[in-house]
């Protein structure tokens, strides 16, 4: 998972005009119609894809014409995954092999509106109307000697992607940007952006028509935002990670986590080097190592400076640790009062200050306005203890198991189901839902109400009753009913 990307400034700012959220049909929708996304020039994006420009004009007023059906559905250019080994056939790459969008396969030097672009670091922006779990994104560009008047084939492209972004099998944000280093080219070229979906066998293909000015390579500015200062050796299983902050506070989406896999890697100068290397692989707006002042960052065995792209809005980076040995030691230290391990955990969760301690309470559904669970929080869900491995975490272990790991709950006061029967009224699922008649923290199961254009849709973890059965949404935003899109719902119970 290599991210050859950093920030770029577009030559022409190109906001998309008049985007309107389409009303969602209920029954009879094709599987493709549930999967939407396209490259656009809005909100800092450098360019709009060919299909996007069939519907939305550049700020210059230019847009593509005679596009066929794609003018209504630029978000639906979907075909078989596996490019370049498989996927759409040569001559059908622009349409993703789907005859519904065959007009996109037309190719000549003057057929399509072009986005002005410079080589160097550039920002590509995707807008997702249905943000699938994602395997990765890859970006390809035509060869220097390509023929713009011949159909697009694999032979026309450099099949070594100039930018790769790992999706980590997570749902991307509705507005997602990638910082990629565009190779030097002159004149008219085509960039192929491929979004490889993680929960289907399909991928989305967006071709982007670009015009290079030939002599303007964009330079980007970096500033020091933190330091990797390895002051201790780590053990196998320990984790060291970055904590990245912007003006709103910590932004966990930029965190890079290195888990120590060997004694050799745990040596201080080694894990510092490996963490810096991993940051450079995973992040686009963050780099670590020895900076040559131009574009190269070389990880060092020892102290590594951490650099932030000045245009990213990020402000600082700190280093955090999750130490297996220290967790055991902390439990012992906290027992100085004479409590047992179990009692210690229970006492911590009952304190008014819970910082650094895992709660062990019944899971309470979190929503967008809630703070969410933090890494290390432990909850009881369907009788099983789970520890959050992500933050902020708004999802239940049932809806997003990849964000939780099973654990044990040693909280004798407020944790396990057994202790809840004789202990605190608010500790177990049952007592939490029924305590003092206060249903503010209980999960509601209202009747399904069809969302339409302008609605926010259901979110991951929302429960609804539909045709007498309770369902939990596994996707968000989710505009579809359990019958129209059963893959976005799971049968559940109303807690």
Number of domains: 4
**DSSP helical segment count:** 6
Radius of gyration: 25 Å
CATH topology of the largest domain: Coagulation Factor XIII, Chain A, domain 1
Top-tier CATH class of the largest domain: Mainly Beta
Taking pLDDT < 50 over at least 5 consecutive residues as the criterion, the unreliable ranges are 1-34, 215-219, 326-359, 411-443
Quick synopsis:
This protein is mainly β and 495 residues long. The protein is 11% helix and 29% strand.
Describe this structure in words.
The chain has 495 residues and is mainly beta. It has four domains: 32-212, chitin-binding protein cbp21 (Coagulation Factor XIII, Chain A, domain 1); 222-322, Alpha-Beta Plaits; 341-437, Seminal Fluid Protein  PDC-109 (Domain B) (Ribbon), CATH 2.10.10; 443-495, Seminal Fluid Protein  PDC-109 (Domain B) (Ribbon). It contains six helices and 25 strands. The strands form seven sheets. Strands 2, 3, 5, 6, 8 and 9 form a six-stranded mixed sheet that branches. Strands 11, 12, 13 and 18 form a four-stranded antiparallel sheet that branches. The longest helix has 15 residues, at 268-282. The radius of gyration is 25 Å and the shape is globular. It starts with 35 loop residues before the first strand and ends with a strand.
Secondary-structure map with pairings?
Layout: E1 36-40, E2 78-80, E3 115-117, E4 120-130, E5 134-142, E6 157-170, E7 175-182, E8 187-197, E9 202-212, E10 222-228, E11 239-246, E12 249-250, E13 257-259, H1 263-266, H2 268-282, E14 286-288, E15 290-291, E16 297-298, E17 304-309, E18 314-322, H3 324-334, H4 341-350, E19 360-362, E20 378-381, E21 384-388, E22 404-406, H5 417-422, H6 429-434, E23 463-466, E24 469-473, E25 489-491
Parallel strand pairs: 3-9, 19-20
Antiparallel strand pairs: 1-4, 2-9, 4-7, 5-6, 5-8, 8-9, 10-17, 11-12, 11-13, 11-18, 14-17, 15-16, 20-21, 21-22, 23-24, 24-25
């Amino acid at each position: 998972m290599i991210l050859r990307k950093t920030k770029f400034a577009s030559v022409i700012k190109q906001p998309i005009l008049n985007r309107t959220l389409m009303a969602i049909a209920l029954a009879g929708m094709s599987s493709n119609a549930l999967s939407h996304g396209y490259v656009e020039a809005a909100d800092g994006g450098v360019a709009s894809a060919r299909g996007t420009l069939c519907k939305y004009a550049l700020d210059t007023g230019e847009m593509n014409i005679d596009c066929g059906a794609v003018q209504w559905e630029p978000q639906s250019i979907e075909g078989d995954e596996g490019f370049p080994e498989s996927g759409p056939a040569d001559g059908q790459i622009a349409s993703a092999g789907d005859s519904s969008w065959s007009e996109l396969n037309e190719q000549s030097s003057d057929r399509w509106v072009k986005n002005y672009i410079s080589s160097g670091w550039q920002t590509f922006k995707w807008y997702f109307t249905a943000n699938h779990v994602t395997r990765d994104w890859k970006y390809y560009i035509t060869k220097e000697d390509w023929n713009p008047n011949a159909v697009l084939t694999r032979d026309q492209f450099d099949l070594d992607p100039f930018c790769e972004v790992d999706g980590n099998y997570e749902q991307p944000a509705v507005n997602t940007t990638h910082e990629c280093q565009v190779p030097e080219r002159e004149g008219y070229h085509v960039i192929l952006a491929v979004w490889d979906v993680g929960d289907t066998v399909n991928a989305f293909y967006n071709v982007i028509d670009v015009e290079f000015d030939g002599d303007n390579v964009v330079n980007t500015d970096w500033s020091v935002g933190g330091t990797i200062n390895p002051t201790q050796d780590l053990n196998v299983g320990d984790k060291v990670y970055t904590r990245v902050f912007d003006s709103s506070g910590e932004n966990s989406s930029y965190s890079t986590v290195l888990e120590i896999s060997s004694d050799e890697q745990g040596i201080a100068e080694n894990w510092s080097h490996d963490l810096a290397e991993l940051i450079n692989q995973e992040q686009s707006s963050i780099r670590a190592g020895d900076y040559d002042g131009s574009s190269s960052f070389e990880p060092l065995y020892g102290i590594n400076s951490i650099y932030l792209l000045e245009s990213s809005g990020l402000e600082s980076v700190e280093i955090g640790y999750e130490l297996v040995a220290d967790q055991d030691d902390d439990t012992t230290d906290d027992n100085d009062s004479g409590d047992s391990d179990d009692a210690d955990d229970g006492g911590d969760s009952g304190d008014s200050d819970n910082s650094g301690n895992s709660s062990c309470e019944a899971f309470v559904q979190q929503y967008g306005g809630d703070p969410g669970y933090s890494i290390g929080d432990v909850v009881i869900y369907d009788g099983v203890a789970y520890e959050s491995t992500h933050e902020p975490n708004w999802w239940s272990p049932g809806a997003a198991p990849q964000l939780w790991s099973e654990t044990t709950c040693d909280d004798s006061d407020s944790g396990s189901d057994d202790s809840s029967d004789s202990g605190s009224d608010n500790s177990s699922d049952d007592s939490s839902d029924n305590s003092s008649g206060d249903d503010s923290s209980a999960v509601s199961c209202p009747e399904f109400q069809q969302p339409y254009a302008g609605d926010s849709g259901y979110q991951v973890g929302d429960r609804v009753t539909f045709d007498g059965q309770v369902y939990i949404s596994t996707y968000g935003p989710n505009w579809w009913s359990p019958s129209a899109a059963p893959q976005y719902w799971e049968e559940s119970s109303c807690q």
